[in-house]
Every structure is written in structure tokens, then in C-alpha cells.
Design goal:
396 residues; six-stranded parallel β-sheet; 15 helices; elongated; binds NADPH dihydro-nicotinamide-adenine-dinucleotide phosphate; binds L-homoserine
Length: 396
């Protein structure tokens, strides 16, 4: 029998209880063990038929020698960080869905797990149900990953889909995302790109081997996405998606950012709508590949958490070694890295043609919209000095 403690009884926590109960036989077959949720740390009671499991003090879990795995589904960094760190130091493996915690303290927590020969697992922290962390860790050992670009936030993809396809207002779409259990406790973390940033940092930590703190990463959310631009881009098979992007630059620095990007209709990033997430990787041997699935929601997220629990139960010691500590000097200045941009200006097309000889003009009416050749953001801003700019969106 393996006894686990669950911290938090919200969208993810209740999903974990359900999946462990509903899949008891399957989990037994996989692990040879009955997996039991022994305790659930809560702040108040909930109306469920397992109230006897509720406890109100984390110390009870810490001091309970029967509990070998702690599942953290509280969110935020306090008290989650304190609880997770002390559980690991007490020799209990930890599974979490908390990207804020992993993005900030992953390096330290993985090292503690390593020292204790136990596991700190966090598949659900990136991409909800999608096994993207397992994919990049386990399945690309014969590859160098040149780049990764992902729709990593279900709430914002859901909001954009509803605003574009069903003409819902931002507020209505956000409220629905909250009711469906997709949004963060403070939904500005979704809307302002902070959640995506945490997730692309975690993926880059794994792929490129150094801890990258979200505060060192340029981050922009969806508040400034204009439906006019979405409609113009549709004319040329484009869409706007909030992406986390990471890649190596020619001088071996890491380019990493979170921002709305134009994607075109030949790829998975274009096709991923609603709460779905997708991550697209460019690799040397495998070429282009992608991961796709539900990025948020109770049972999809619990599915990833419970998979991690199974791995902890079956593990003989630490499975995944920690990445290295932060090296901020390795992160490139995003304004110096050339890329293409979609630009919408109020100026006439001939002025655009004069200033941007090689740009592709895609729309001429009340405004002029065009896509530049690869250019740095610094240079773009110089060239646009005399224009009335309505919007600029990076092109993947
Ligand atoms: P919820 O807000 O639904 O649940 C959090 C739970 O933690 C609530 O039940 C809350 O209790 C409880 N809690 C908060 N503080 C404490 C505390 N000090 N002691 C005990 N319980 C506490 O959040 P989610 O379940 O949605 O998210 C949990 C984590 O998983 C977050 O890090 C989130 O980012 C991440 N995540 C969420 C996904 C989703 O689809 N929702 C998907 C992937 C990851 P109370 O009822 O009193 O507020
Ligand atoms: N708020 C997050 C999202 C939850 O919408 O993607 C999953 O991490």
C-alpha cells in the first residue's frame, strides 16, 4: 500500500482524488500497490463523502511516516514552497501541478530530491494533460532541440477562440474560462502572459539545462490583441496565438519570450483552439514535431499528476536529475534577435514600400498591414519612427 497526502482540494486536487479512485485497479496493475489518498490538507470542509481524510495542519502530514508521496495542488509559492521543501527534506517524493513553484524554485527542489534519492515531479505544471515534459526529457535523447514554441495557456487560448469565433467579449470569455476551472486564482497571470512565461521557462530549463527565472524573460499577454488584426491575418491564412518561445541564437545565447505571435495555417499551433495547448519543436534528427492536448481542467490535469504518482511509486531512486543553476548572462536581448513582424499602420502603402522595400503588404484599406523580412526589434522601431503604428505582432 502506498499512502499519499494531497495539499489543496480545488480543481486539480478534487480531480486527483477522482482519478485515483476510478483507476484503482489500473494503478494496482501498473505498480503492484494499492494507492490511497490518506490525508487531504484543507482550510475548511467540503461536502464530499471522504471528509474523514481532511486535516488542517501540514505538520501532521510531515510527521506521518506512512505517507511517502505528497501531491501539492495549492498553487502560488507560499505556503506551497515551504510545504514542498519540508516534505522533500523529510524524504517524501512530491508531485506538483504548480508552475509558479517550479519556475521559481525548481532548481533547488530538484536538487533536494536528488540528494534524498527521491523524486520531485511536475508534468502537470506545463501543458495540463500533455506529456510534453516527459516527451522532451525521455524521447529526444538522440536530438538537439533547436527551438520550442508553444501555446501553453488554456485560458487565453480559450478566450481568444471565443472572442474570434463566437464574437464574445473578453469579460464574458474570461468568466467562462474561470467557471470551467481553467484560470489561475488571479486570472491576470493567464491574461498577462505570466503563466505562459513560467511554463516556457520550465521547458527551456529542461531542454537547455539552466534555470531561467521568469523575471528575466520578456512577457506580454493578450490584452492588446486586436480583432482587426486577426481578421486581416485570416486573409493570408494567419492567426494570432499567445506563445512561449525558446531557441538558441547563433551566438549560443538563449532567446526566450512570451508574446502573441502570428502563426500560419500549415501547423499545429494554428489548429490548436479552445483550451487546447500545443508545443512545436524543431530538432536536428527528428525534424519538426509537436505535442497537443488539453492544457487545463480538472481531470486532464489530474491525469498528468497521477501519471507522476505512478512513476514515483515505481521509481528506484531519483529519475530525473536537476538542471543547472541560473546564468542570466546566457539570455539574449530579445530586441537584438532578428525575426519577422506583422505591422499595422495608419500610413499609406507607398510610404511602407519606401521604408520597407522587401515587406509583403497584405492589406490596404483604412490601414496598411504588412509582414517584414527578418529584422531586429531595435531596427524595426527605428524604421517605424515616422509612422502611426496601430499594432505590431511577432511572426513565428
Ligand atoms: P484552486 O484554486 O481550484 O485550488 C486550490 C486549492 O488549494 C483550494 O482548494 C484552496 O482552498 C487550497 N488552498 C489554498 N491555500 C491553502 C492552504 N494554505 N492550505 C490548504 N489548502 C489551501 O486551484 P487549481 O486546483 O486550479 O490549481 C492548483 C495548482 O495547479 C495551481 O498551481 C495551478 O496553477 C495549477 N494548475 C491548474 C490547472 C487547472 O486546470 N486548474 C491545470 C494545471 C495546473 P480554498 O477552497 O480554501 O480556497
Ligand atoms: N491557468 C492555466 C491555463 C492552468 O489556463 O493554462 C493550466 O496550467
Amino acid at each position: 500500500m502506498v499512502k499519499i497526502a494531497l495539499l489543496g482540494h480545488g480543481v486539480v486536487g478534487t480531480g486527483v482524488v477522482k482519478v485515483i479512485k476510478n483507476k484503482a485497479d489500473q494503478l494496482f496493475e501498473l505498480t503492484g500497490e494499492q494507492i490511497e489518498v490518506k490525508s487531504v490538507l484543507v482550510r475548511h470542509d467540503y461536502d464530499v463523502d471522504y471528509k474523514e481524510k481532511f486535516i488542517y495542519s501540514f505538520d501532521e502530514i510531515l510527521n506521518d511516516e506512512e505517507i511517502s508521496i505528497v501531491v501539492e495542488a495549492i498553487g502560488g509559492t507560499e505556503p506551497a514552497y515551504r510545504y514542498v521543501k519540508s516534505a522533500l527534506l523529510a524524504g517524501k517524493s512530491v508531485v506538483t501541478s504548480n508552475k509558479e513553484l517550479v519556475a521559481k524554485h525548481g532548481f533547488e527542489l530538484m536538487n533536494i530530491a536528488d540528494e534524498k534519492n527521491i523524486n520531485f515531479m511536475f508534468e502537470a505544471a506545463v501543458g495540463g494533460a500533455i506529456p510534453v515534459i516527459h516527451g522532451v526529457r525521455n524521447c529526444l535523447k538522440a536530438n538537439k532541440v533547436h527551438s520550442i514554441a508553444g501555446i501553453l495557456n488554456g485560458t487565453t487560448n480559450y478566450i481568444l477562440t471565443k472572442m474570434i469565433d463566437e464574437k464574445q467579449s473578453f469579460d464574458v470569455a474570461l468568466k467562462a474560462a474561470q467557471e470551467l476551472g481553467y484560470a489561475e486564482a488571479d486570472p491576470s497571470a493567464d491574461v498577462d502572459g505570466i503563466d505562459t512565461c513560467r511554463k516556457i521557462c520550465i521547458l527551456a530549463d529542461i531542454i537547455y539545462g539552466n534555470h531561467i527565472l521568469p523575471e528575466n524573460v520578456y512577457t506580454e499577454g493578450i490584452r492588446n490583441v486586436r480583432i482587426e488584426d486577426v481578421d486581416i491575418l485570416k486573409l493570408v491564412g494567419g492567426a494570432i496565438k499567445l506563445l512561449g518561445v525558446a531557441k538558441r541564437t547563433e551566438d549560443n545565447k538563449l532567446f526566450i519570450m512570451t508574446a502573441p505571435h502570428v502563426v500560419f495555417n500549415q501547423g499545429i499551433l494554428y489548429a490548436a483552439n479552445d483550451v487546447f495547448n500545443a508545443a512545436q519543436l524543431e530538432t536536428d534528427n527528428a525534424g519538426l514535431m509537436a505535442f497537443y492536448g488539453r492544457g487545463a481542467g480538472s481531470l486532464p490535469t489530474a491525469s498528468a499528476v497521477v501519471n507522476d504518482i505512478v512513476e514515483c511509486v515505481c521509481a528506484d531512486g531519483t529519475i530525473y536529475p536537476a538542471w543547472e543553476d541560473e546564468k542570466p548572462e546566457n539570455v539574449a536581448d530579445y530586441k537584438d534577435v532578428p525575426m519577422q513582424f506583422y505591422v499595422n499602420v495608419s500610413d499609406k502603402a507607398d510610404k511602407v514600400e519606401n521604408a520597407f522595400e522587401t515587406a509583403e503588404i497584405i492589406y490596404i484599406k483604412e490601414s496598411t498591414a504588412f509582414i517584414t523580412e527578418k529584422i531586429t526589434e531595435n531596427r524595426l522601431n527605428e524604421k517605424l519612427k515616422d509612422f502611426t503604428v496601430n499594432s505590431i505582432v511577432r511572426v513565428l
